[in-house]
Specification:
The chain has 80 residues and is an alpha+beta fold. The chain has one helix spanning 49-64, and strands spanning 24-30, 37-43. 20% of the residues lie in helices and 18% in strands. The chain is elongated and about 50 Å long. The two termini are 19 Å apart.
Length: 80
């Protein structure tokens, strides 16, 4: 992982070079259903866990428990 120098400045997150972007982490658990499960999602260079990794965790949980989804998840890569 490469860290950004404190002297580097980027106007928007999209301006940050792909290889320097943060990874998106999201960890959750389902304790009120049987069997109880935990899910950990890591998306390399995915920016924010809530925006990138949480929807993937939701889809994993819905698929595991066979819960019908209203809108299927669409993964889009912004890698250029």
């Amino acid at each position: 992982m490469v860290s950004l120098s404190s002297l580097e400045y980027y106007r928007t997150e999209a301006d940050i070079p792909y290889e320097k972007r943060h990874h998106a982490w999201f960890v959750c658990g389902v304790l009120n259903k049987s069997p109880r499960i935990s899910v950990a999602v890591l998306i390399e260079h995915g920016h924010s866990g809530g925006a990138a990794a949480a929807p993937v965790a939701r889809e994993v949980i819905e698929t595991f428990y066979d819960i019908p989804t209203e809108k299927p998840l669409q993964l889009v890569s912004d890698r250029r």
